[in-house]
Known about the structure:
The complex is a heterodimer.
Chain A: H1 3-10, E1 18-22, H2 48-60, E2 65-69, H3 79-87, E3 97-102, H4 109-116, E4 121-126, H5 132-139, H6 143-157, E5 163-168, H7 176-185, E6 189-194, H8 201-208, H9 212-225, E7 259-260, E8 265-267, E9 278-281, H10 287-294, H11 296-301, H12 316-319, H13 324-329, H14 345-354
Parallel strand pairs in A: 1-2, 1-7, 2-3, 3-4, 4-5, 5-6
Antiparallel strand pairs in A: 7-8, 8-9
Chain B: E1 9-11, E2 15-20, E3 23-28, E4 34-37, H1 40-47, H2 55-61, H3 69-81, E5 85-87
Antiparallel strand pairs in B: 1-5, 2-3, 3-4
Amino acid sequence: MSAETVARLKSGLDAPICLTWELTYACNLQCVHCLSSSGMRDDRELSTAEAKRVLDELREMKVFYINIGGGEPMVRRDFFELIEYAVTPTKSANGIGVKFSTNGTFIDAGNARRLAAMEYLDLQISLDGVDAATNDAVRGRGSHAFARRAMDHLATAGFGPFKISVVVTRHNVAQLDQLKALADSYGAQLRVTRLRPSGRGVDAWDDLHPTQAQQREIYGWLLAHGEEVLTGDSFFHLNALGDPLAGLNMCGAGRVVCLIDPIGDVYACPFVIHDEFRAGNLRAAGGFRRIWQRSDLFTSLREPQSAGACASCGAFDSCQGGCMAAKFFTGLPLDGPDPECVVGNGEMALAAQATLPSPVAVGVKPRPTMDHSR
Amino acid sequence: MHPLLGAALELHPQVALRPEPFGALAYHYDNRRLVFLNHADLVCVARDLAEHPSLAAALRAADIEPNRWPSFVAAFESLKDSEIVRER
Lengths: 374, 88
């Protein structure tokens, strides 16, 4: 990706390249790191008719594909109706490609066949450990078995290359090779993403986020595997260690990505469900398009960002200061180092924060604005 | 003359173009590739490829100066590699 292209992306696009839409806050699991603090359905969630109007608008805006998640999206009774509505072309426009994230519980033999029959559909099954003990400690008892059963059904139904999506934690870094082998055994593709201190993850972060030594291990492993392993471009903070990893080396929040939550609130990215990063609600006049193209928040995210405390660091061009959400939910300033900064500046900033008298304006960790855990 | 200039090309039927301030984004619904067309002139030529007997004819019809042709040939080679355009 040329520097010129990245500069253009930073100033924003007429429509997102890839947006995440969480269909519901309802979930049968209670993963300790859930980025949306999901559990219970919210009474204000979009109706089937409203969701279809959103899909119509996205189609008009030529959004090529969307990532659907939750909560557990398959909990919604209109799940199949909505994804079929999305992927079906109309007379005047292409379908919208759908990739959805699921814990797999509801993929039985029948649903696997139904999914396998659809075009323009990708799916990823979440799995955070190659064995039940590692996975279930994070995702809940029985969740490893649900996920593996879903993979077996998909393989039997001939779905093709689905994805296995792993959030990399302190406890599964050592399993990356085994997870890759598991994906290979299904003809699936491995996707690994970075843990963020978002949602319930704000409380799980200290126990789960990889150590400095593990960060280097992850970097080396990703570099060795190149584009055969998907990352959602989420590890660009590691680029300060040397050659850049595959993908866009930038934060896409409000520039090329955003999140639509189950009640129609639009956030800069899936990892910042907090009032400070809410750009508007698509039930308001002007819908999603107005928020994407004209909201104050997204406009400001597309302006050149200050390197702040990182300006004097030689690695800034490589790591871009890391992840906005990771900084925000660990109480670090947005124009400073990422908490997992591989040069060590994040740890220093966190240590400095711990010595400040409390409560003070900086150094107070924000909490997610909404919690649907119970 | 570069061999690609004589080739009859077309946008792949599974490709959608989306206009953007810098040119356009092209998305291939089959192979899921997303490609940036970084100039409005490139977008014009790509869109109308199928109406011309060759890439050279398409460049001429879009009034592209001959000194810019090598950069267009390079761009279309790359678009052909990612199957955004194909020979018809």
